[in-house]
């Protein structure tokens, strides 16, 4: 018996970078290997190449070749269609998707398929119009590009994956595994998904979301007049700082500081300060064994309760969970 058919899109005639190769292997491992002792039902799994007219053959990374008898036309009729990362040039330079991909995705969806993207595969679903009016995610390094290019999509960069019923999207790299296990949980139940996760030596459900991996520090500003005052503030995060303090240091009015900082960094002075304090707290949690209350003091967040409040809100996990995941001290 089958739990349903899963069609995975593989790019033909395009070299597959190592990270994309990892993401490609995730659905192959989860859906492509039957687990008869866990469930009599499993998935009818197939790879569908974008270069269908050439037999679905493409040159892969490390001298490997992707070869499949299935092409984009075979997406239609599948119960679930999965798109992993699209070529970097499609994301970074806005180049077109592989020929026929967006149209094939629309046809598959119209035929009743559940549509799934891993990492930048969300760009393919968005190009096909399947994310319009929906909440979606992608790798946090590319969510701003996704939101700018497809303004009808409600992009959320804080989560590991988004389940919007018949359209699901995940963040990058290992978050694809979180989503694939979630699909198994939906289809075959929690017990099967949990046991499969144990066999893969991964947690069945990770705490928090993608926010814990995002670099909260704001990129250097192009506004040369702000550089010195921002450096001055970073060196004094353990002290009380206000917008007025920054404005006096910059020799400008608070309103002018607000306008120029928002134009240069995309955020307000108070949010910039909070991001810097949280970034300092992250560094301290990663590199030191300082108690939580000391981390709060050194980062300028005051008390341990205040640190926990902002950490949970902005990062998505508690300071203790973050240290256990990323800490190197001790």
From TrEMBL:
CDD domains recorded: GATase1_AraC_1
Organism of this sequence: Streptomyces longisporoflavus
The UniProt record lists the keyword Nucleotide-binding: no
PROSITE patterns on file: HTH_ARAC_FAMILY_1 (PS00041), HTH_ARAC_FAMILY_2 (PS01124)
Pfam families registered for this protein in UniProt: DJ-1_PfpI (PF01965), HTH_18 (PF12833)
SMART domains: HTH_ARAC
Domain HTH araC/xylS-type: 227-325
Keyword DNA-binding among record annotations: yes
Protein name: Helix-turn-helix domain-containing protein
Domain of life assignment: Bacteria
Keywords, ordered alphabetically: DNA-binding, Transcription, Transcription regulation
InterPro entries (alphabetical): Class_I_gatase-like, DJ-1/PfpI, Homeodomain-like_sf, HTH_AraC, HTH_AraC-typ_CS, INH-QAR
């Amino acid at each position: 018996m089958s739990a349903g058919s899963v069609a995975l899109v593989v790019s033909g005639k395009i070299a597959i970078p190592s990270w994309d190769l990892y993401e490609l292997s995730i659905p192959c491992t989860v859906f492509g290997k039957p687990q008869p002792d866990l469930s009599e039902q499993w998935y009818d799994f197939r790879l569908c190449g974008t270069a269908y007219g050439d037999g679905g053959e493409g040159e892969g990374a490390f001298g490997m070749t992707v070869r499949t008898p299935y092409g984009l036309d075979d997406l239609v009729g599948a119960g679930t269609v999965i798109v992993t990362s699209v070529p970097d040039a499609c994301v970074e330079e806005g180049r077109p998707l592989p020929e026929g991909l967006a149209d094939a995705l629309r046809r598959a969806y119209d035929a009743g398929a559940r549509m799934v993207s891993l990492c930048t595969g969300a760009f393919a679903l968005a190009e096909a119009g399947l994310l319009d009016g929906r909440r979606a995610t992608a790798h946090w390094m590319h969510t701003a590009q996704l939101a700018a290019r497809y303004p009808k999509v409600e992009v959320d960069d804080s989560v590991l994956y988004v389940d919007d019923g018949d359209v699901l999207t995940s963040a990058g790299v290992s978050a694809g595994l979180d989503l694939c296990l979630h699909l198994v949980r939906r289809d075959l139940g929690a017990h099967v998904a949990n046991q499969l996760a144990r066999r893969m030596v991964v947690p069945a459900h990770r705490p928090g979301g993608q926010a814990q991996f995002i670099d909260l520090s704001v990129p250097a500003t192009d506004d040369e007049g702000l550089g010195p005052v921002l450096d001055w503030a970073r060196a004094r995060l353990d002290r009380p700082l206000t917008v007025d303090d920054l404005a006096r240091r910059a020799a400008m009015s608070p309103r002018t500081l607000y306008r120029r900082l928002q134009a240069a960094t995309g955020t307000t002075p108070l949010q910039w300060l909070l991001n810097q304090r949280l970034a300092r707290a992250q560094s301290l949690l990663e590199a030191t064994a300082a108690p939580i209350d000391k981390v709060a003091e050194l980062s300028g967040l005051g008390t341990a309760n205040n640190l926990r409040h902002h950490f949970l809100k902005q990062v998505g996990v508690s300071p203790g969970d973050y240290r256990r995941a990323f800490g190197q001290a001790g």
